TrEMBL record:
<protein>
    <submittedName>
        <fullName>Tripartite tricarboxylate transporter family receptor</fullName>
    </submittedName>
</protein>
<comment type="similarity">
    <text>Belongs to the UPF0065 (bug) family.</text>
</comment>
<dbReference type="Pfam" id="PF03401">
    <property type="entry name" value="TctC"/>
</dbReference>
<dbReference type="InterPro" id="IPR042100">
    <property type="entry name" value="Bug_dom1"/>
</dbReference>
<keyword id="KW-0732">Signal</keyword>
<dbReference type="InterPro" id="IPR005064">
    <property type="entry name" value="BUG"/>
</dbReference>
<feature type="signal peptide">
    <location>
        <begin position="1"/>
        <end position="32"/>
    </location>
</feature>
<keyword id="KW-0675">Receptor</keyword>
Length: 332
């Protein structure tokens, strides 16, 4: 009798531990299943610009790390608002990200109304890196320096034009800040991305462009465009831009207008999914292919935590809000 009781108890204990072991082996649903289908990075610009280049180069390496393809989805328009809004309204499951730029934190200051709540609609994943904007002209342009541009703009108010990849972008702000500090009148021509803007610059439809280094680096190296200056406080560490002066040292003291790239997901995305995306993004920016493609064009790679990016973005939003107000910058 006692032997039978002990045997029954043993079987009961064995079943309990078997169930416990099986339960412990089941991972948390969000992380276990993620990703089980392709992940999408929305680029809120037309193909061919710096943001597109960074996203596509990153996407290849992230896809290898995640074990699923990373698809680039270009949704240009309205100074990045169309693409950004699409991500704000996407399911918070980690399968849709946006490659944001400085326009992400500037739009709240220059737009009276946005279709999303800037402060509540997104969760940070990672700051990819920071790079200079570059003031460029065609190689056959008579403008050989920043001083030449200032003199020509003052001699012909409103006749010179500068291109940007959209209102509120770093290129737009760089141009508006330049106009304000130099007391010049240069007409802003916004495009749906850096690619179309560069095409018109090369074709002579616009005179100058304050472009991201990633967008125009190859054109400068190939001799199709001439770099007059960089917009950062110090000269670029990039080989291609190392000899290019800053706008500040070219006669516009106090001028600084750099650009950056960072990944966001919709707010409400599970923390473990964000951590998975952050880990994949960190590995992607450290790959030789990514470094070789972007560091030569002045991008200083970051690759920190979501909290680091959140702090940086909030600082940028406050800095540019002040610049926008002081310089009366609006979305044209």
């Amino acid at each position: 009798m006692q032997k039978g009781l002990l045997s029954a108890r043993f079987r009961t204990v064995s079943v309990f531990f078997s169930i416990a072991a099986a339960t412990a082996a089941i991972p948390t649903p969000a992380l276990a299943a993620f990703p089980d289908k392709p992940v999408k990075i929305v680029v809120p610009f037309a193909p061919g610009g710096g943001t597109d280049l960074v996203a596509r180069t990153m996407g290849i390496a992230m896809g290898q790390e995640l074990g699923q393809p990373v698809i680039i989805d270009n949704k240009p328009g309205a100074g990045t608002i169309i693409g950004t809004d699409a991500v704000a309204k996407a399911a918070p499951d980690g399968y849709t990200m946006v490659m944001a730029t400085v326009a992400h934190v500037v739009n709240p200051s220059i737009q009276s109304k946005l279709p999303y709540d800037y402060e509540k609609a997104f969760a940070p994943v990672m700051l990819v890196g920071v790079s200079p904007n570059v003031l460029v002209v065609r190689t056959d342009s008579p403008l050989k320096s920043v001083k030449d541009l200032i003199n020509a703009a003052k001699a012909n108010p409103g006749k010179l034009s500068f291109a940007s990849q959209g209102a509120g972008t770093s290129a737009h702000l760089a141009g508006e800040l330049f106009k304000n500090l130099t007391k010049t009148n240069i007409t802003h021509i916004p495009y749906r991305g850096a690619g179309p803007a560069i095409t018109d610059l090369l074709g002579g439809q616009v005179d100058v462009m304050f472009a991201t280094a990633a967008a125009v680096g190859t054109f400068v190296e190939s001799g199709k465009l001439r770099a007059l200056a960089v917009t950062t406080a110090t000269r670029s560490s990039s080989h291609a831009l190392a000899k290019v002066p800053t706008i500040a040292e070219s006669g516009v003291p106090g001028y600084v207008a750099d650009s950056w790239y960072g990944l966001y997901v919709p707010a409400g995305t599970p923390a473990d999914v964000i951590a998975r995306l952050n880990a994949a993004a960190k590995k992607a920016v450290q790959t030789e292919a990514f470094r070789k493609r972007v560091e030569g064009e002045g991008l200083v790679i970051n690759g920190g935590s979501p909290a680091d990016f959140d702090k940086y973005a909030k600082g940028e939003e406050a800095r540019w809000r002040k610049v926008v107000k002081e310089n009366n910058i609006t979305n044209e």
